[in-house]
Design a protein that fits this description.
The complex is a heterodimer of chains A (112) and B (114). In chain A, strand 7 and strand 8 form a beta hairpin. Chain A contains no helices and eleven strands. Chain A starts with a strand and ends with a strand. In chain A, 38% of the residues are buried. By secondary structure, chain A is an all-beta fold. In chain A, the strands form two sheets. In chain A, strands 2, 4, 5, 6, 9, 10 and 11 form a seven-stranded mixed β-sheet that branches. Chain A has a four-stranded antiparallel β-sheet with strand order 1-3-8-7, with no helix packed on it. In chain B, strand 7 and strand 8 form a beta hairpin. In chain B, strands 2, 5, 6, 10, 11 and 12 form a six-stranded mixed β-sheet that branches. With 114 residues, chain B is an all-beta fold. Chain B is globular, with a radius of gyration of 14 Å. The chains are: A mainly beta (112), B mainly beta (114). Chains A and B meet through strand 4, strand 5, strand 9 and strand 10 of A and strand 5, strand 6 and strand 11 of B.
Chain lengths: 112, 114
């Protein structure tokens, strides 16, 4: 157990739907990162939050949004889902900035 | 543009043999370099990292990596591979002026023959 908890582990949903992925960072870590892993795109950085504030943004679609709550857990919201959104979504956390993340085990999203 | 290239998509080595996984990066600033390992169905685990100083970095599980600025490389090595090392390996680069964002290579899948 890495200490980063992601729920759910698997999610199957239909096109056009909206889902929420949840991440609880390792105790003491203030930064949360979201990554998407797919066969064609590899691991792509989506967004970073630090202590509740957005710190960095990658190629995150407008249909996707995220937030970090006062208790430091984070949620990634994916809406108007398309088949191409099927992927593994990883959350990672760190104390601050670079230093090496700790990854969760991911949420596998399948859009049908 | 920042990028990381792992030239080998798949490598097979015999158990007990040495291993070298290649990583080349393109980055304007002084890079922070990482190697991660991913076992099937698992998240990524940090093997080692390089920020500055000694260019030969020791990591967990007997891995090491060498930073060569002149070649823009950060190759991962292990002197003797174990069957449990079979996994996918990712090289990543970041910079302190970009928060914690990492750019990952496409990964190298390692198979180990008995």
């Amino acid at each position: 157990d890495s200490g980063v908890t992601q729920t759910p582990k698997h999610l199957i949903t239909a096109t056009g739907q909206r889902v929420t992925l949840r991440c609880s960072p390792r105790s003491g870590d203030l930064s949360v990162y979201w990554y998407q892993q797919s066969l064609d795109q590899g691991l792509q950085f989506l967004i970073q939050y630090y202590n509740g504030e957005e710190r960095a943004k990658g190629n995150i679609l407008e249909r996707f949004s995220a937030q970090q709550f006062p208790d430091l857990h984070s949620e990634l919201n994916l809406s108007s889902l398309e088949l191409g959104d099927s992927a593994l979504y990883f959350c990672a956390s760190s104390v601050q900035g670079l230093g090496g993340y700790t990854f969760g085990s991911g949420t596998r999203l399948t859009v049908v | 543009a920042q990028s990381v290239t792992q030239p080998d998509i798949h490598i097979t080595v015999s158990e007990g043999a040495s291993l070298e996984l290649r990583c080349n990066y393109s980055y304007g600033a002084t890079p922070y370099l990482f190697w991660y390992v991913q076992s099937p169905g698992q998240g990524l685990q940090l093997l080692l990292k390089y920020f500055s100083g000694d260019t030969l970095v020791q990591g967990i599980k007997g891995f090491e990596a060498e930073f060569k600025r002149s070649q823009s490389s950060f190759n991962l090595r292990k002197p003797s591979v174990h069957w449990s090392d079979a996994a996918e390996y990712f090289c990543a680069v970041g910079a302190n002026n970009q928060g914690g964002k990492l750019i990952f290579g496409q990964g190298t899948e390692l198979s180990v023959k008995p």
